[in-house]
Amino acid sequence: MEITDLQLLELLVKGNDLAFKQLYDRYSSKVYNTLLSYTKNAEDAEELLQDVFLTIYNSASAYRSESKVSTWVYMISVNKSLDFLRKKNSQKRFGIFSSLYRKDTGEIQFEAVDFMHPGVKLENQEEAKILFQVIDSLSENQKTAFILTQIEDLPQQEVAEIMKITRKAVESLVQRAKANLKKELEKKYPNRGI
Amino acid sequence: MDKRIDKVLASIEGIERAQAPFDAFEKIQLKIQTQKQVVITLSLLKWISAAASIALIVGGNLFFIISYLGQSPTSSETGPYSELFSDFNIYADEK
């Protein structure tokens, strides 16, 4: 019989490193994929991946089984991602006090980049690049609801537990997100006949 | 126009999950090890500073005790007022 996530966590609390590895194997791609959708940068996503699992390792004893382990893991991932974006946005705002250029390459740090998600089908890549650009324009809640339901393909009920809102609220957020994305696409590419 | 926008919105259909970099777990383990070493070092520093404080207090008290006990008992007789005391030996010459 396969060991459950809860059992793995309990073993992790007792110091079982193999249990931690198994937990990592189960969740690393889900976590990484979520982080990538927020950060749109593989290096940042990898850095956050390490932070997420370090938090899981350190906080395993504090886990309360009120929610599923997967919900808890996604909550940590979403919180880390939003913290990252807030920090990045505040750096942009205070750009006068810090360099706007990357130290290593000299490129501007905060320009919108053409992000190519590695999991997108080849025939959809051009459109997906555009979509990931406009996802940035969404509010935090709409972005989270959209990423978790549309990219992570999680059921709305699970997203509701992750975001600590009702399922109806998730549904509403997703609808508003799609409407706002459409508006942004119309504004962004009016002359390209999109 | 709407068709194209719909195509953009539908571009993530069938998206596959990206895989984490192959060496990510090793890096996580390294961070955990570093974290453990920092905790041990801080814990050791705490004990060292506690021991040092106790040593200082005990040492300081010992110093004062030894200094106090080390004072000579005849010093008052050989001090500047010793002549006064011998002058006040009023019964010495009585017969």
| DSSP strand content of chain A | under 5%
- Number of helices, where a helix is a run of at least 4 consecutive DSSP H or I residues of chain A: 8
User: How far do the termini of chain B sit from each other?
Assistant: 140 Å
Question: What's the number of extended β-strand segments of chain B?
Answer: 0
Q: How big is the Rg of chain A?
A: 18 Å
Tally of separate domains of chain A: 2
Which percent range fits the helix content of chain A? 55-70%
SSE run of chain B? HHH
Outline the biggest β-sheet of chain A. Answer: none
What would the CATH topology of the largest domain in chain A be?
Rna Polymerase Sigma Factor, Chain: A
Counting DSSP H or I runs of 4 or more residues, the number of helices of chain B is 3
* Structural class category of chain B: mainly alpha
Radius of gyration of chain B, rounded? 42 Å
Q: Tell me, what's the shape of chain A?
A: globular
Helix content of chain B: 55-70%
Oligomer: heterodimer
Largest sheet of chain B: none
Structure class of chain A:
mainly alpha
Q: What would CATH call the homologous superfamily of the largest domain in chain A?
A: RNA polymerase sigma factor, region 2, helix turn helix motif
Topology:
The complex is a heterodimer of chains A (194) and B (95).
Chain A: H1 5-13, H2 17-39, H3 42-59, H4 69-93, H5 125-135, H6 140-151, H7 156-163, H8 167-188
Chain B: H1 2-9, H2 24-69, H3 82-87
Structure in words:
Chain A is built from eight helices and no strands. In chain A, helix 3 (42-59) crosses helix 4 and helix 4 crosses helix 7. Chain A is mostly helical. The model of chain A has no long low-confidence stretch (mean pLDDT 89). Chain A folds into two domains: 1-111, RNA polymerase sigma factor, region 2, helix turn helix motif (Rna Polymerase Sigma Factor, Chain: A), CATH 1.10.1740; 113-194, Arc Repressor Mutant, subunit A. Chain B has 95 residues and is mainly alpha-helical. Chain B has a domain at 40-67. Helices cover 63% and strands 0% of the residues of chain B. Chain B has helices at 2-9, 24-69, 82-87. The longest helix of chain B has 46 residues, at 24-69. Chain B is rod-shaped and about 130 Å long. The relative contact order of chain B is 0.04. The model of chain B has no long low-confidence stretch (mean pLDDT 81). Chain A binds chain B through residues 21, 24, 28-33, 36, 42, 46, 49-50, 53-54, 57-58, 117-121, 124-125, 127-128, 130-131, 150-151, 178, 181-182, 185-186, 193-194, and chain B through 1, 4-5, 7-21, 24-25, 27-28, 31-32, 35.
